[in-house]
Amino acid sequence: MAKLSFLWHLHQPPYRTADGVSHAPWVAVHAGGAYRTLAAAIAEADGRGQVLNIVPTLVEQLVAYRDGRVHDPVLAALTTPSNELTAGQREVLVSWAFHVTPRQLQRYPRLAELARRRPAGRGPRTAASFGPGDLRDLQVLFILAQAGEQAWRDPRLAPLAARGRGYLPAHHEASAGWLEAQPGELLALWLELAGRPGVEVSTSPYAHPIMPLLVDTGIVVDSWAPEPAPPAPPFAHPEDAALQLERGLELMRDAGFAPVGCWPPEGSVSSAALAVYAEAGVRWLVTDEGVLAKSLGRSLREGGRAGAELYRPWTLTGPSPAVFFRDRELSDAIGFRYGRWDDEARAARSLVDDLTAIGRTLPDDAIIVLALDGENPWLHYPDGGGTFLRALMEGIGSAGDALRPATLGSIAAETRPAVLDRLHPGSWINGTFATWIGHPEKSAAWALLGEVRDAIASSGRPSPPSLLAAEASDWFWWLGDDNPTELAPLYDLIFRRHLEDACHQAGVAPPAALSTPLKTVCRPVKVPLAHRWRPPELDGRITSYFEWCLATPVEIAGDQAVDRLSLWAGPGRLHLLIEGAQEMDRALAEAPLHLRLARSGDAPIAMTLDGSAAHGAGIDCAVDRVAELTIAWDGRRGSRLELARVDGSLLGGAALLLDPEPVDERSEPPIVG
Predict the structure, then answer these.
(1) Structurally, what CATH architecture does the domain formed by 522-662 represent?
(2) Whole-angstrom distance, CA of residue 39 vs CA of residue 62
(3) Which of 165, 217, 428, 562 could lock onto 232 through a cystine, CB 3.0 to 4.6 A?
(4) Max CA-CA distance within the chain?
């Protein structure tokens, strides 16, 4: 009879800056939705073997909402009567109320109708096409969409969900009151669950930082090995890692919980980080099976089925809690696959069948651990996830002798771990830390964090609260190109605000760089890649149609001198054509252009293009009627091209994210020299 444990990771970064303003509403709007869905399912189905891993900054923000100690402009725009909204609040409402998943939008035709009426792009008059009745419907429907299944199961909301449109002021008042009550109700429900048999509350370090990188960013060398690691700004503050854990455990205990285990943020581990957890008295951790595979130096799966070594706790020869490794395939099935099924109950039965089949092949002392995000999946499930969760827990309860649900704390107390000779340093994403360091934007954030950290240390002041908030993993997650979101510039701003607040709290001058965004918005552009096509003749003239007929044009709006940039690529080179309303040698003599090509894995190429040439290494150029350039480029995805004058970007503040697209050269005769 194998033991079975679920760890549900519940996490929001610190959106609230030192002035008490919350710059994003997700804590408030998900309190009664995705978080409530999971907690209610555990309560109603008497779920056993359930671990709620609650990040301290989520609890801290819920308490602030409950106690009225936060100013949230989005919450204010949602709860103020529509005929009393200021012009600014109307814009806030319209800019946020369509941040919903396709599943959420599908449930509410009126919300989809309003979404279609939203003007393309953004501007100061985005909300002008919505009247007071539209705005009231938008307020109520956004609350219902984020409430998930509570919209039709909670009697306070069910009549509103059934109505669907045409809401009256009393309906809005009811939905607003429900929304404002959710942070306190959720905290009370979590505390009630924590006292139940078969349920455990665990936590993470305070602001959910990548602990191995706080200890020493130099760990990237071992994490990427045998591949070369990207450059990493030096940052080595194990005392910050210890403080993050200490503050997190203290906050959770003050809130009424008694955690003995942790989900290390993003499943990120290293031997040095494990020693920090051990020193704080943490008894168990969970990370990903990929880390175990790299630690053992071999695959854990044969024919799709994992071996028994995955289903047991491990420890290190040095200071270490017990470490459990999650079954990635089953965990990811909940997070990413079952939400696409139309029948949630059938999806749950499928998972119970898979768990039962695995349990019957394992020894009695085996432990199957499923660990995943406990919030985001339910936004994509057809019925909001609650049906799936209740059917899953009820199915496990009736699975017979193949499975025995148990919490990780109870398992760690009664099971002797095996010993790992070596722990691979990495996270749940591909076994490295690439999601949080290595990309130029991510590394620039680490460098800025280090600069502020060093200034505070030189002042002799202790680490201020906002510095811990700035160390949260989320700010680094949203930088770079791997997790695109239109909210990335906002998250960049919050990160820099936390650093600025930390400087003020420590009495040091904020670095000037804090005023410059780290995030560059990217516009993807297809770059035709030809291997047999003759490169352009660099003479500053379009001497042949075939020189640039392959190229992708990018129109430049608003500039008087530059109209168009065109791009294509050949073996090892990126070819650029710059055209304008007048001859480019004259235009560039008056106002030079600055170009920067950030190449994936290589040092960036920066150049200044004036009336006669481009100045920079690795560039060939000619300027006359047009400007023609070729630049060293290996054709890998992820490279970014920036084009600017002294007074700002020519791409509206964006960079071009180059996406090479091979040309089918079989259909046309090659142009050869």
Answers:
(1) Sandwich (2.60)
(2) 15
(3) 217
(4) 83
Give the list of residues 6+ apart from residue 591 with CB closer than 8 angstroms, or none: 561, 645, 646
Q: Is 81 helix (H, G, I), strand (E, B) or coil?
A: coil
Q: Coil, strand, or helix at residue 75? A: helix
| Domain ranges (residues) in the chain | 2-9+197-334+351-378+390-420, 17-43+63-193, 440-519, 522-662
How many angstroms separate the CA atoms of 252 and 257, rounded? 5
pLDDT attached to residue 71:
97
Distance CA 442, CA 282 (A): 30
- Judged against a pLDDT cut of 90, whether residue 652 lies above it is answered with no
Residue 667: which pLDDT band, with cuts at 50, 70 and 90? Answer: low
CATH, domain range 2-9+197-334+351-378+390-420: 3.20.110.20
User: Which of 48-52, 591-595, 655-659 is most confident?
Assistant: 48-52
How much is the pTM?
0.85
How would DSSP label each residue in 242-285?
A: HHHHHHHHHHHHHTT----EE--GGG-B-HHHHHHHHHTT--EE
Q: In the structure encoding, which two tokens stand for residue 111, read together?
A: 């919300």
**Stretch 29-36: mean pLDDT, rounded?**
97
User: Which residues fall within 8 angstroms of residue 353, CB to CB, at 6 or more apart?
Assistant: none
Q: Which of 9-13, 250-254, 320-324, 399-403 is the least confident region?
A: 399-403
pLDDT digits (tens, 9 = 90+) for 534-564: 899 999 999 888 899 999 999 887 666 788 8
- Name the pairing type of β-strands 284-288 and 322-326: parallel
For residues 53 and 326, what is the distance between their CA atoms, to the nearest angstrom? Answer: 14
Which residues are CB-contacts of 103 (< 8 A; sequence separation ≥ 6)?
339, 379, 380, 381, 382
